[in-house]
Amino acid sequence: MLYIMPNAGVIPIVRFINNAKRDLDVNVYYLSDKPILNAVRYAIKRGVDVKIMIDGKPYRMSIRKEKREIKRTGAHFEIDKMFDRKYVFDHAKYMLDNHEALIGTANFDWSAFHKNREYEYTTYNKNIISSLKNIFNSDYSGVKFNGHINHNLVVSPGATQKILSMIDQPGSIDIETEELGYYRPILSALAKKGSAVKIIVPSSISNYDKKIIRFLEKYRVKIRLMPARTVYIHAKTIVGRQKAFIGSENFTYTSLNKNREVGIIIYNDQLINKLKNQFNNDWARCR
C-alpha cells in the first residue's frame, strides 16, 4: 500500500499503530505528532510492547519536550547511540510489528501530514520485516549491525550503489528531493543521464544547492522548484519505468554513507504509476 501526504494525513500512521497486536518498533528521526503519541499510548494500554528510537540531536533542534512526551506514553524509549556523532544522524523513518512494516519519507510531526509532500509504503513481506527487525534490534541495543539486508531495502550506511542503480535504470527517471548536495558519484550519474532526468526540489533550497542545480542544468537535467505555499517537498523518491525508490535518504555523502537511513525499492507497476502520476501533478505546479 502506498500513501501520499499531505492528502492521506496522519491516518495511515495511526491505523498502523492501532493494528499492532503484540509488539511495535518505531525508528524515526523526529517524533512530536500528538495523534501518533496518543495512538502509542492506547497501544500500550492494550498490552502492545512498544519500543521507540529517535535521533538524539535533530539538526538545529532541541528535543527535551519531545523526549518527555514520548516517555509519558509509557513506551520503551532510546536515543540511537550508534549514530550519535557530529554531523551523523539516525535519519530513518520506519516502524514494524510482527506482520507488517511501514517505510517512508516522513518525520512524525504535524508538518509532515499537513504541509509536506511525503510518501509512506507498507509491506507484509516477511523477509523485509525480518531484516528491519534485526536492524532495529541492533541499533536499539547499541550493537553494530552486520547481518543480511533484504535486497529490496536501501539501508545506509552503504546505500550509494543501490541509489546509483535506481538512477542508471533504463529510461527516464523522476526525482523529488528536499536537497541535493555535492556527492560526486550521484551528480555524475545524474549528469550522464541528462535530459532523461526530471527533479523537483523546494523553492527554499539552499544557495549551495542552487549551484548544484546550475551544474546539472548544463547537462540538460530538467529541474523545477516547488513553491512552499503549494506543498513543501520533503520526499525522497526516484521513479523510473522498472522500479521506484522511497526512503529517508537524501542524495548526499553523509546520508548514504554515514547516517542510519532506510528506504525501499518498489517493483509494483500500479504503485509506480501512482508515483508517476503524483510527480506529474507536482511538476505542473512547479515553477
Structural account:
This protein has 287 residues and is α/β, with parallel strands linked by helices. The protein has two domains: 149 residues, Endonuclease Chain A (Endonuclease, Chain A), CATH 3.30.870.10; 130 residues, Endonuclease Chain A (Endonuclease, Chain A), CATH 3.30.870.10. Helices cover 36% and strands 24% of the residues. It contains ten helices and 15 strands. Strands 1, 2, 3, 4, 5, 6, 7 and 12 form an eight-stranded mixed sheet that branches. A seven-stranded mixed sheet has the order 8-15-14-13-9-10-11, with helices on both faces. Strand 3, helix 3 and strand 4 form a beta-alpha-beta unit. Helix 6 runs parallel beside helix 7. The chain is globular and about 55 Å long. The protein starts with a strand and ends with a helix. The model has no long low-confidence stretch (mean pLDDT 96).
Report the radius of gyration as a whole number of Å.
18 Å
Average per-residue pLDDT, rounded, comes to: 96
Main β-sheet: number of strands, strand sense, barrel status? 8 strands, mixed
What would CATH call the architecture of the largest domain?
2-Layer Sandwich
What structural class do helix, strand and pairing data support?
alpha/beta
Share in helix = 25-40%
The 3D shape can be described as globular
Low-confidence stretches: none
Domain PLD phosphodiesterase: 86-112, 229-255
Catalytic activity: a 1,2-diacyl-sn-glycero-3-phosphocholine + H2O = a 1,2-diacyl-sn-glycero-3-phosphate + choline + H(+)
Organism: Candidatus Acididesulfobacter diazotrophicus
GO molecular function, one term: RNA endonuclease activity producing 5'-phosphomonoesters, hydrolytic mechanism
